[in-house]
Structures are given as C-alpha cells and as structure tokens.
Write a structure and sequence with these properties.
This protein is of the alpha/beta class and 225 residues long. The protein is 31% helix and 20% strand. Bound molecules: D-xylitol-5-phosphate and zinc ion.
Length: 225
Amino acid sequence: MKQLCTRIAASLDCADYLNVLGDIRSLEEGGVEMLHIDIMDGNFVPNYAIGTNLLKKLRPQTDLLFDVHLMVNNTEQAVEIFSNLGADMITFHLETSSRLHHVIHSIKEKGKKVGLALNPSTSPAGLEYLEPYLDLVLVMTVEPGFVGQKFIPEMVEKVRAIREIIEHGGGTTEIAVDGGIGEKTVPLLKEAGANIFVGGTSSIFSGRESVSEAARRFRQLCEGG
Ligand code: DX5
Ligand code: ZN
C-alpha cells in the first residue's frame, strides 16, 4: 500500500464553544494542521452546528486548514456559501446529490480541495468513477450529526475496500475517518488504509488532558508512535 502522510484534523464541533479561540490556539500549539468544520442543516442530519457568522469571524484568526464537512441536503448552495467563507477543502455527502461530477467540478473550479463523504451504510461501489477527481474520501465511522457517538466497527473493512479501489486505479486520494476516532480505533483504521484522522471527543477533546497535550498525543497515536 502506498504510504500517504498522516494528517490530523480537529473537530470544531467538539471544541469548547465558550472558548473557541482558546481551543484553536491550543490546537495550533499541539501541531494540528486541519480544522474539521461540521456544517449541519437540521435536515440531512437532525442537528445544527456552527453558522456562517462564526466561520467568518474565525477565518482571519488562524492559518489552520479549514476542512468544511457539509452535512446538508442543499449541497450546491452550501458549496457556494462556504467557498466564499474561506474553506480550503469542501467535503460533501454522496447521498445528497445525483450530480456528483458536477458538484466535484464546481468545488474545484473555486480552487478548493474536494472530499466526498460516505455515510456508514453507503456502499463504496462506483467510487472508481469518481476517485480520479477527488482529493479525499471521508468515511463516516459513526452516523453523522452528533459528537460522541459509538464507533461502527464494520467501517474498518469499508476503509480497506476504498483503499483497494484507489490503489487499483493508481490514485493517491486520501482517506479520512470521522467519528469515535481514538486509541482503540486508530490502529485498525490506519492498517486498513486511512491517513487523515478527525480528532473529537474520543481523543483531542476528551477532557482528560489539555487540548494541546491531547493533540500531541493524538498525532503520536496516528503516526503509529
Ligand atoms: C459527526 C461529525 C464528527 C464528530 C466527531 O457528525 O461529523 O466530526 O464531531 O466527533 P467524535 O469523534 O466525538 O464523534
Ligand atoms: Zn465531521
């Protein structure tokens, strides 16, 4: 398997909402490179997360890569909105569009990296027709919409199947995993082929230690240290 570099993303929805900027500074100190920003519409998922105004305020405050995870049904509208709010990467859900190549193209046209997210029950069949145009596949390892949910173990084999599809096509698309990512799950997912790990309440924001300490430990864990 081609060795892709390990990357760490911190899930903003798991941060201390009363001290977001403080947590962002701690993430920077802890060597995190990506901020995983969940966007929810109360429709594709029965929940809401941060809004456009907070994102507008956060953008000039940090150089962290903004990886926007759209859990919304009106994907094409959201791509427009969040491209203009400083997203570096936009990840949208396969389940929300029948015009996947069109949406992928529209994100790339805006100069953004593009990720395709798959819900736990969504099969990777057909991914080979999209993979050449993707920068990342996001494998949801929990049902999307809420933090702190139970990890779905069958997702390990799904990551392996996706890595095989990518390698079979000679691609280098990255695989990110999101939801319940921590001590027990990282080694399994890494061995199966994931290289981007979204740290949430099972790791960076567990509350068991400082955010910067937890971020450093999470990186060691994900790098196989
Ligand atoms: C779930 C979100 C995840 C979540 C990760 O809908 O997409 O990013 O916030 O947090 P944990 O790892 O605590 O589930
Ligand atoms: Zn997410």
